[in-house]
Task: structure prediction
Amino acid sequence: MKKQITHISLHRTGKIVAFVSAAVSILFFIALLLVGVISHPEILGRFNAIWLRLLIATLMIPLISGLFGYLFTVIGCFLYNRIAKRTGGIEFTVTESGDF
Result:
């Protein structure tokens, strides 16, 4: 059975992508932080401007990533919905499968 995606919810899809983007950016930031601490262990014993910058980055990177993820997803969904009205949208085939 063939189906078409003719409309994508802007806000709902944007929210999901924003939260996923923020979560993934936190994971990448933690990995980069660990690499930085391992490669420069001398910064562990003292509090200085580096730690303050890292704290600010820890708060800002997920927020910025989530915001841009939301904005670009909403723009992409809006454009898709406009184009899908004229072209019919993405078509895919669905088949019934046995019980899982």
About this structure: Residues 2-93 form one domain. The mean pLDDT is 87. Helices lie at 10-39, 49-87. The chain has one domain: 2-93.
